[in-house]
Every structure is written in C-alpha cells, then in structure tokens.
Specification:
The protein is of the alpha+beta class and 209 residues long. The chain has two domains: 9-128, Pleckstrin-homology domain (PH domain)/Phosphotyrosine-binding domain (PTB) (PH-domain like, Roll), CATH 2.30.29.30; 131-182. Helix content is 47%, strand content 20%. The chain has four helices and seven strands; from the N terminus they run H-E-E-E-E-E-E-E-H-H-H. It has a seven-stranded antiparallel sheet with strand order 4-3-2-1-7-6-5, with helices on both faces. A hairpin with an 8-residue loop joins strand 6 and strand 7. The protein is rod-shaped, with a radius of gyration of 43 Å. It comes from Perca fluviatilis (European perch). This is PH domain-containing protein. InterPro entries: PH-like_dom_sf, PH_domain. Residues 22-130 form the PH domain. Residues 184-209 are annotated as: Disordered.
C-alpha cells in the first residue's frame, strides 16, 4: 500500500467494496512494478480521492491503496521499445503517470489499451482531490439553499394570493347580500294600484255630472 497512508483495515475494506460498486471510474489497467520494471494487469477502482487496485475484478480484498490528495495526473509518452520486448506494439501506446505530492514517493505508472480510456482515467484522477470535492459540495449546498429560498418565497406568495382570493370571495358575497337588500327596499317604496280601471271609471262619472 501507499506509504504515508494509514487506514483501519475494516475501513479500507469497506471503502474498497464501495469503490468496486460505486466508483466513479473502474476497469483494468496495466501497472508497472517498481521492483522488476514489469507491467502487470490489475483491476482499478476510483472512489472520491482514493484509488484501489485488485488482482482481478473478482477479488474482494484490495492489493493496494493510493491516496490521491495533492497528486497530479498526466499523459506520458510511450517508452522506447526494447529490441527484445515480446509485448505487442499496440499495448505500449497509451501511458499516464500519477505523481504524488509526498517526497520520495515514486510516480505510479499506468497504461491502457485504448486512448479514450487513458484520457478518461487522467481526467477522473485529476478531479479526485478531496479539496475539490469539498468545494463542489459547497457549491451544491449553496444551490440547494437558493432553491429552498425560492420555494419558500413562492410558498409565501401562493399563500398571500390564496388569502386575497378568499377576501375577494367574501367581498363578493357581501356585495351580493347588499344588492338583495337594496332590491327589497326598492320594491317596498313603489306605490300599490289595486284597481286602476275602476279609478278611471269613477273620474269619468264625476265629469259627466
């Protein structure tokens, strides 16, 4: 495991399980061993700012852990092919380095068979800094708070509108009641004519006399 990194074994195993299931980037990479300068294929899983590697994709325990905080990751030129090398040429084309910020720690040399895969690994590892994760979390939290404030403002506005509509309904009902009262009052003030024809007859008779 990486020097200078201390993990409780249980915690490391738990994180490795999470990395295998939910890691942002997972897959096979060829890793250069420092002892014999030989390339061996391992299964890697990146979770937040920790890079795990396993003997294969079925392994339950990690063979190594690298803490990526403060590291840099970049593409590297393919080394010159030895005349006695037995490896196919296409496997020596896509290299990248993980350079750690710890003094005396050798870079991690990795390679992929596909250039697109190599570029993705470099990009994901470059974004794996824990400080960047904290910054991203703060940005997301600010956005969340802003959305909550907008929702609260809209909720208050909706309640105010509902109150205004209820007040308007009450006012409409009051006006309707006043109109009914006014109509009844108006009807009561009009004169009543029981027999208008009879009245005209009496007036005519008096005129003849």
């Amino acid at each position: 495991m990486q020097k200078g990194v201390r993990y409780n074994e249980g915690h490391a195993l738990y994180l490795s399980v999470v990395a295998r299931k939910e890691g942002s980037k997972r897959g096979f990479l060829s890793k250069k061993t420092t002892e014999i300068s030989r390339w061996t294929e391992k299964y890697f899983a990146l979770y937040q700012n920790v890079l795990f590697y396993f003997e294969n994709d079925q392994s339950t325990r990690p063979s190594g852990i690298y803490l990526l905080e403060g590291c840099t990751c970049e593409r590297a030129p393919a080394p010159k092919v030895s005349a006695i090398s037995k490896e196919p040429m296409e496997k020596q084309q896509h290299y990248f380095l993980v350079i750690f910020g710890h003094d005396g720690q050798k870079p991690l040399e990795l390679r992929t068979e596909e250039e697109s895969d190599c570029n993705e690994w470099v990009e994901y590892i470059q974004q794996a800094s824990y400080s960047d994760i904290i910054i991203e979390r703060e940005i997301l939290m600010q956005k969340y708070i802003h959305l909550v404030q907008i929702m609260e403002t809209e909720k208050i506005a909706a309640n105010q509108l509902r109150t205004q509509l209820e007040d308007q309904d009450t006012e409409i009902e009051r006006l309707k009641a006043e109109i009914v009262v006014l109509n009844k009052t108006k009807e009561g003030m009009q004169p009543h004519h029981n027999n208008p024809r009879g009245g005209r007859t009496q007036i005519s008779k008096r005129s003849k006399r």
